[in-house]
């Protein structure tokens, strides 16, 4: 707790912050663009860690993005308690420790699906489109091959109303019955739908349900 009490939060001029010359972490132009997009969407909510002389300890990419966005000031935290050796080590540790984190893939998929259905730009999560396609493409793997839903058939009017208690079953049914959404498209052009109940026209689907 003693070290935490020494942290000093301040707004600093972006041009006054000094990059660490021996920083071994690299930042491509593509990554800096993604960081800039994140700052524009969410704000600059992750302060840059600096030393007493305004040298950057952590946050080089954020500062590069801030300059790209022409931000005059950025939030900083001064870690004045760190020794020279600790600063050198933390520059590495801040980047390396995050690499050991993993993903709960099922939870991630559901969270992304929820954002997608709210028509939120999924690229702002930091994932590339190819990664999003792969994650959301695992929807079929989440089912056991059995489509579980109730059905009400009105043959006189030639329609079927399918009721689902979740979107994963609906998407599985889309694949199983080759159904096309009539509501909208995913950001990558693939179909998706909103709501729990869906009305499907066509006698061919009645036949498939009876099989």
Describe the structure.
There is one protein chain. By secondary structure, the chain is of the alpha+beta class. The chain folds into 2 domains: 97 residues, Conserved hypothetical protein from pyrococcus furiosus pfu- 392566-001, ParB domain (Alpha-Beta Complex); 106 residues, no CATH class. The protein is 36% helix and 18% strand. The protein has 7 helices and 9 strands; from the N terminus they run βαββαβαααββαβββα. A hairpin with a 5-residue loop joins strand 2 and strand 3. Helix 1 packs across helix 2. It is elongated, with a radius of gyration of 25 Å. About 11% of the residues have low confidence.
Tell me the layout of helices and strands.
Blueprint (H helix, E strand, L loop, with lengths): L7 E6 L15 H14 L5 E3 L5 E3 L1 H9 L4 E6 L5 H13 L8 H13 L11 H8 L13 E5 L4 E5 L3 H11 L6 E2 L5 E2 L4 E5 L1 H8 L1
Parallel strand pairs: 2-4
Antiparallel strand pairs: 1-4, 2-3, 5-6, 6-9, 7-8
